[in-house]
Amino acid sequence: MLLNLNADLGESFGPWTMGDDIHLLDVVNTANVACGFHAGDPSVMVQTIELALRSGVSIGAHPGFPDLQGFGRRAMSLPDAELFALIQYQLSALDGMSRCRGLTMTHVKPHGALNNMACENTEIASVIIQAVKHYNSELILLAPVLSQLAIAATKASLPVALEIFADRTYTAQGTLVNRRQPGAVIETADGCIAHVQSMIKAQGIVTQDGSFIPAQFHSICVHGDNAHAVETARSIKVALLADGHELGTLPDVMSGQ
Questions:
Q1: What is the pLDDT of residue 180?
Q2: What percent of the chain has pLDDT over 90?
Q3: In the chain, how long is the greatest CA-to-CA distance?
Q4: Rounded alpha-carbon distances, angstroms, from residue 187 to 114, 139, 179, 212
Q5: C-alpha angle 182/229/64, rounded to 5°?
Q6: Residue 139 and residue 243: Cα distance in Å, rounded?
Q7: Domain 2-255 annotated CATH 3.30.70.260
Q8: Domain-wise residue ranges, the chain
C-alpha cells in the first residue's frame, strides 16, 4: 500500500514544550500544525513550518476549540456561525504563515474534542466542511475512518483522506475508545506496530473486542504528545517499509489513488 504517516505538531506554547517535533519530522510524512487555539503560538507555528519545509513534510492546519488550559480536549457548545469563523480564522493563520515561508498548506485535520464531536454529530461536521470548502475547496480533509466528518466531506465533494490511529483502540462501533477508559491508549511501540499491521491485513478497523469493520484508509496517525512518540513513529515506519509498503506525503498518497 501507498500510505502516509501523520502527526500533530507545533503544540508547544511559549516556554512550555510539547513533544519532540524536530526528530518526529524526520520520521513522518505529514504534520498537522496547531493554530494557536488549543496549543501553539505564532513563534511555534513559524518554527514548525520551517522545520517541515526542510524535512520535505506536507503540512495542514490542526484547528481546535479555544481551550489552551484543556488542550482542546474539552467539549464546547458553539453557535454555527461562531464555529464557522473559528475554523476559518485558524486556517487563515497557518496558511498565511506558510505562504510567507514558501510552503503550501495542503490539508485540514480538526483537533481533540472538536474532531471527536464532528465524527459523531452531523451538524458540527457540516459546519466544519462548509468552512473549509468556503476557504479553499482544494484542501484535503484528514478525517477518521467511518466518521460523520468523512461522510459529510464526501457528500460536499471535498477531498477526503481517511486515517486510522496507531496508538488508540476502537469500539465495536468504529469510534475511538474514550481516553478515560482502560486500554484506550496503546503505550508500547510493539503494541502500536501490531495494531497497525492487523488493520492493514484486515483492510479495516480491528476493534478492542477483536471484531472487524471494513474500511479504506490512507493515513496513519502517530501522536506526538507522549514520551515514546519518536521511537514509536520510527518503529512503525521501519515495520511498514519492511512489509513492502511505500510512504509519501498526504498529497502524494491522494494523487496515487
A1: 86
A2: 88
A3: 48
A4: 24, 32, 12, 22
A5: 75
A6: 30
A7: no
A8: 2-255
